[in-house]
Amino acid sequence: MICNKCGKECADDAKFCTNCGTELIAEEVSGTAPEEAVVTVTEEETVTEDAAEATAEEETEVNETDVKEAEEAELREVPAEAEKKKAAAEDSKRPGKGKILKVVGAVAAILVLILLIKAICSGGEEYIALDKDAVLAVEEADDKVIAIMSDGNVVELDVEECSYVEYSQDRSVACFFNEDDALCVLRKGKLVKTGIEDAGEVIVSAYGDTIAYMTDIDFWNSCGTLNLYYTKSGKKKEIAEEVLCDSAVLSPNGETVAYVGDYEAIDDFKGYYSVNGKKPVALGKEKYIFAIADKAAYIYYLDDDRIYAQKKKKDEEKLASGIYYSTVFLNADHTEMLFVNDDKTYITVKAGEKEKVSNEEFGSILLPSESIQNYVYRRSGRGAIEVNYTGADTFKEQLFYAGGKIIYMNKKQITNTVASGVMDFAVAEDGESFVYAGYSGDIMSVTDFDKGGREKKIGNDAEAVGLYAGGSLKYVYYINSDDELCCIKGKKTKKIADDVTSAAISADGKVCYFVVEEEKLCYSAKAGKEKKIASGDEDISCGRYYNMVIAAMEDEDEEVISVLDGNKLKELYKQER
């Protein structure tokens, strides 16, 4: 089995990558093309807590009126996503879900685009997140092109076809090519036909202000002319010719672009950057810039198998050498960068000297479910890196996953391991606690990260292979290797159902949806009894992505994708098989 994150070949029966710790997902359930989505949005319904707390043994009914009030309260808070190559969803960065979550390829292909309709907007104070004008998906449907917006509205666009859809990290802007191969831009629900034709290699800045694209592409030599399009003003600017395809990177605000130029031979290229469309500045020979801050204040680049950071017009800092493959994490404004080298993790702040923060290799950052991250793979000479644009304001006071351990970094950039032997975990929405299933069979809750992590045993099941919890983590559901769904509430553990083939937890953590023998869709509210939602001869699966739970039902003729709202199904997408 090949790791989708680092590319390492692992044993066929391996659950986690031995190189980076990422969960290994079988090809048939991982999905690829994240742009495949046609969505019909109906009225909002959901599940909330009953007026009185039911015990774990009591049957709990779903109160949809309370749910609407909870949703309205959530919408006053703040939303989000994740997506892109090598990360079909946040769960692909987490251990322990591979055996349990069976979502067919066509489902996984659309989830990262459509499963944010009810995401809560965060305002971006701690990480990049969706706002009310975010574009969730642009898709062809019934001989027309539609856009699904984060507020649940569907906008019909005045074009007949769309292809090569790209989005800004915050989803405020989407761009695509229409039936005439002309570039179209969707911003704030309005379509702009740019008049740009025969373009390619499109990327969008994090906040949607700038689109970089190539024209006059020489596919034989993999180069072309780099241009910028400013989405607010509609202005266009040619930057340079003979630019290496797929080498352009934009700063967060989109005013600065970096690229590889003079690409006449593999050992004769140069790294360049341009601020506000001005004359490009040469950084130097064989310097491949993989990230750049606004106004080129901080520049990060590869030079063969070495990683460097440089302040504008200052001497560079050599951060690592002998890089064959490394993981890099950038915060929202690119003032902080974490990177892995020699089995350890380091940080550089404002392109300064590196500091070791851990003797472990960080594999992922644990952010709230509504945060949006992007992942890009870059190679220069012998060195290759995966760049993780986390969208987090800072790496201080954050949790990281590293090969079976969860590590906390405090305000002073000092790290400590707060959990070890982690098979699977779930983090509370406030980020102040998490639960995990350990190799020992113990199921633990962890708080007080600054004090080294205070652990409390809440249950034990040596066969537990997947956790499902959310909100305040009051109800911790899990599936064991006997395909039993159980729930831990307080000091009690209760079996909910047998023969469970997939499961997902609601955003507030109070309702667990699950499928029995791939033929019956059910739910359990607040550790209550199994309740049926739908059944039939179809192959059924369910999963949670961000604040939504979806179900996929397929038979010989068609596949239907629906969102679960309370105890009801609402169809989002249908396609013939």
Features:
mainly beta; 3 helices; 6-stranded mixed sheet; globular; 577 residues; 4-stranded antiparallel sheet
Characterise the protein shown here.
The protein is mainly β and 577 residues long. It is built from three helices and 45 strands. The strands form eleven sheets. Strands 23-22-21-20-26-25 form a six-stranded mixed β-sheet, with no helix packed on it. A four-stranded antiparallel β-sheet has the order 4-5-6-7, with no helix packed on it. Strands 8-9-10-11 form a four-stranded antiparallel β-sheet, with no helix packed on it. A hairpin with a 2-residue loop joins β36 and β37. The longest helix is centred in the first third of the chain and has 12 residues, at 64-75. The chain is globular and about 65 Å long. The two termini are 27 Å apart.
Tell me the quaternary state.
Answer: single chain
Strand ordering within the main sheet: 23-22-21-20-26-25
For the record, give the distance between the C-alpha atoms at the N and C termini, rounded to a whole number: 27 Å
* Uncertain regions spanning at least 5 consecutive residues: 26-125
Helix proportion range: under 10%
Estimated radius of gyration: 24 Å
Structure classification? mainly beta
Can you count the beta strands? 45
Largest sheet: 6 strands, mixed
Number of helices: 3
The average pLDDT value, as a whole number, equals 79
**Gross geometry:** globular
Strand content: over 45%
